[in-house]
Design goal:
This protein is α/β, with parallel strands linked by helices. The chain folds into 3 domains: 218 residues, Rossmann fold (3-Layer(aba) Sandwich), CATH 3.40.50.620; 93 residues, Tyrosyl-Transfer RNA Synthetase, CATH 1.10.240; 79 residues, Structural Genomics Hypothetical 15.5 Kd Protein In mrcA-pckA Intergenic Region, Chain A (Roll), CATH 3.10.290. Helix content is 45%, strand content 13%. It contains 21 helices and 13 strands. The strands form 3 sheets. A 6-stranded mixed beta sheet has the order 1-6-5-2-3-4, sandwiched between helices. It has a 5-stranded mixed beta sheet with strand order 9-13-12-10-11. Helix 13 packs antiparallel against helix 16, helix 14 runs parallel beside helix 16 and helix 16 crosses helix 17.
Length: 430
């Protein structure tokens, strides 16, 4: 790991477009020496998603600038649920579910942060470790009295829910997060809290609590909430969230998400999601603009973030498979991909089961796609599609005279059926 000058963090975040708001004095406190700062992550699922990558990368850049990052995994706050940015009450998770999620998330954070860098080594903490010993009376008497109802009601996270309703449970989240900041300041000498702009109210409540309970000072920095250039929500697709866990989002789909972003988004996001410096990024953008059809910017962005999350091996698999699926002469190359790569790419595609013995003497495509597999209900429809060159088998155009044998199978098991450009079907032979 290399370090930038301590005073460069604010400048670094500024040119990367990662500053929405900050408190006075933040730059001064950071320039005085290595300073602990934290970001909180509530374990509401078994995996983080790419929306979490913005605060994660804030911690990455924070550490690169010589400061000490703390990732707080909210084993306690996850049981409550943050109302910020939510229009309705969350479904509450059980303690067992939260604990399981915590253990799943920790290794994902370790992909990004350096835990062996000496004075600015990263640390993961769980706020259940200090909340489990606090009873209700103590919390309300010693902590709750420090923030007035009027102060808490004025926060956007509360105001935005007044019409639809907010429970006392979610209303209390602000105070609980505030206590996290106070606790970390007192016990970890943590002076800075970092988060998305929707967390500003919760973070400043923590600063206020520190002031009231210890006469100390806390500092804050928030980053803008990302949206795509078309106005849609960052990290969302028609299939839902893009997760970091391979069991929830395959490396290929993860890679393809970044590869297919717009030029405008790629130019903005490469500053946020990579540690490439300003000169390196400017050079990539210049090269991209000269030959935009090559999508050099998207390829570099996809490479950096896929390697970081899934490793270089998975990235190379994604590139290899992409070149086969979308390049030239793909019919022959398709035969070379492994079963792992094949299933990774076509995760979620409809599959139909057929007995391999049906191929012993070869079979015509109409019988295979209708009678044997049931993939298509109409022989007439398949005939018309084949005659119009709309059906491909293993990336080769199919004719009425095509005879399919076991030698055509991918990995001795699969046939890839393509209708038009984007509709895929897999037939599995056993």
């Amino acid at each position: 790991m290399y370090k930038l000058a301590l005073m460069d963090f604010i400048k670094e975040m500024d040119w990367r477009g990662m500053i929405h708001n900050s408190t006075p004095g933040l730059s001064d406190i950071l320039s005085k020496g290595t300073t602990a700062g934290y970001v909180g992550f509530d374990p509401t699922a078994t995996s983080l998603h790419i929306g979490n990558l913005v605060p994660i990368m804030l911690l990455v850049h924070y550490q690169r600038c010589g400061h000490r990052p703390i990732a707080l995994v909210g084993g306690a706050t996850g049981l409550i649920g943050d109302p910020s940015g939510k229009s309705a009450e969350r479904n509450l998770l059980t303690l067992e579910e939260i604990n399981h999620n915590v253990e799943c998330i920790k290794p994902q954070l370790e992909l990004f942060l350096d835990f062996d860098s000496g004075l600015n080594a990263a640390e993961i903490v769980n706020n259940m470790d200090w909340f489990k010993d606090i009873n209700m009376i103590t919390f309300f008497r010693d902590i709750g009295k420090n923030l007035t109802l009027n102060y808490m009601m004025a926060k956007d996270s509360v105001q935005n829910r007044m019409e639809t309703g907010i429970s006392f449970t979610e209303f209390s989240y602000q105070l609980i997060q505030a206590y996290d900041f106070y606790f970390l300041q007192k016990n970890k000498d943590c002076k800075v809290q970092i988060g998305g702009s929707d967390q500003w109210g919760n973070i400043t409540s923590g600063i206020e609590l520190i002031k009231k309970m210890s006469n100390g000072k806390g500092y804050a920095l928030t980053t803008p909430l990302l949206t795509k250039s078309d106005g849609s929500k960052f990290g969302k697709t028609e299939m839902g969230n893009i997760w970091l866990d391979t069991k929830m989002t395959s490396p290929y789909k993860f890679y393809q998400y970044w590869l297919n972003v717009s030029d405008e988004d790629a130019q903005k996001w490469i500053k946020i999601f990579t540690i490439l410096n300003q000169d390196e990024i400017s050079s990539i953008i210049d090269s991209h603009n000269k030959e935009p059809h090559l999508r050099l910017l998207q390829k570099e962005l996809a490479k950096k973030i896929t390697c970081r999350v899934h490793g270089e091996k998975s990235y190379n698999q994604c590139v290899n498979v992409s070149s086969i699926l979308f390049g030239k002469n793909t019919a022959d190359q398709l035969q070379s991909i492994t079963e792992e790569e094949f299933l990774m790419v076509f995760e979620g595609v409809e599959q139909y089961q057929v007995n391999k013995s049906s191929l012993s003497n070869g079979i015509d495509p109409i019988s295979l796609l209708t009678d044997l597999s049931g993939a298509f209900p109409s022989k007439g429809e398949i005939r018309r599609l084949i005659q119009s060159n709309a059906i491909s088998i293993n990336k080769e155009k199919c004719t009425l005279e095509t005879l399919i044998r076991t030698t055509n199978l991918l990995n001795n098991k699969y046939l890839l059926i393509q209708k038009g450009k984007k509709h895929y079907i897999i037939i599995c032979f056993s």
